[in-house]
Design goal:
Layout (H helix, E strand, L loop, with lengths): L12 H7 L3 H14 L23 H5 L1 H8 L14 H9 L1 H13 L1
Helix pairs in contact: 1-2, 5-6
Length: 111
């Protein structure tokens, strides 16, 4: 379950907390992400059915994510399928989350 940008949604704490309907986990994730991203993230916002979810909730930032919006507008499952791979937006993300690049590179090898 690889998101548009390469995050493995099935390993994402917001996805796990949602899947397990675990309010304690939501609170832990909100606290961690608030500190990590210098934001005020509330536990009730930790609800996500995965980036590619059409009917379920998507975490607040993912809802407005420019990378996700771009992939959806191109009707591709993730950026590994994009003819403009890897764009500046992805390169910036890869600096913070190198595992995203690894995930997308693995997919590109199979295309």
């Amino acid at each position: 379950m690889i998101s548009c940008c390469g995050i493995n949604c099935s390993e994402c704490d917001a996805f796990i907390a949602t899947k397990e309907n675990d309010d304690k986990k939501r609170a832990e994730v909100a606290k961690l992400w608030s500190k990590q991203f210098d934001s005020d993230i509330k536990p009730e916002s930790i609800n996500c059915g995965g980036c590619l979810s059409e009917s379920g909730p998507v975490f607040g930032y993912c809802e407005i994510c420019s990378i996700r919006k771009c992939a959806k507008s191109k009707e591709i499952p993730n950026c590994a399928h994009c003819s403009e791979y890897a764009c500046d937006s992805l390169e910036g993300l890869f600096k913070m989350l190198p595992e995203c690049k690894e995930n997308l590179e693995k997919i590109r090898q199979t295309l």
